[in-house]
Design goal:
Layout: E1 2-3, H1 7-15, E2 19-21, E3 25-31, E4 44-48, H2 56-73, E5 81-87, H3 96-114
Parallel strand pairs: 1-4, 4-5
Antiparallel strand pairs: 2-3, 3-5
Keywords: Endonuclease, Hydrolase, Nuclease, RNA-binding, tRNA processing
Catalytic activity: Endonucleolytic cleavage of RNA, removing 5'-extranucleotides from tRNA precursor
InterPro entries: Ribosomal_Su5_D2-typ_SF, Ribsml_uS5_D2-typ_fold_subgr, RNase_P
Length: 115
């Protein structure tokens, strides 16, 4: 899974206003069509972990967990989509297993809604 890097890409996904929420995370998604030929070959992931989650060490831990879990469950996503995982403040204290279940459930819902 590639990364969303530019601010414009993040804003494009967030402006679409398609999201699925969990207890500790919110998944914003944008399913690309054939008009976006240069970007349509990959799934791309962006992370949004604000200072409300905690200090830098805590935020980096949350981001590391999100990257690992997204890599584990990316096969559930449609082939041409952009995803932004946004952490709620409760994500800092959530267990790895809880986050795993939430991301699996959210990615399955994204796949179902994209069809």
């Amino acid at each position: 899974m590639e990364r969303l890097k530019s601010h414009r890409d993040f804003v494009g996904v967030l402006k679409c206003r398609r999201k699925i929420g969990g207890k500790d995370i919110v998944v914003h998604y944008l399913v690309l069509d054939d008009q976006h030929d240069d970007q349509a070959n990959h799934r791309r992931l962006g992370l949004a972990v604000s200072k409300s989650v905690g200090k830098a060490v805590t935020r980096n831990t949350v981001k590391r967990r999100f990257r690992i879990l997204a890599r584990m469950h990316e096969h559930q996503l449609p082939e041409h989509c952009d995803i932004v995982l946004r952490a709620k403040p409760s994500a800092a204290s959530a267990s790895f297993d809880s986050l795993d279940q939430q991301i699996a459930k959210c990615f399955a819902a994204v796949s179902h809604k994209a069809k």
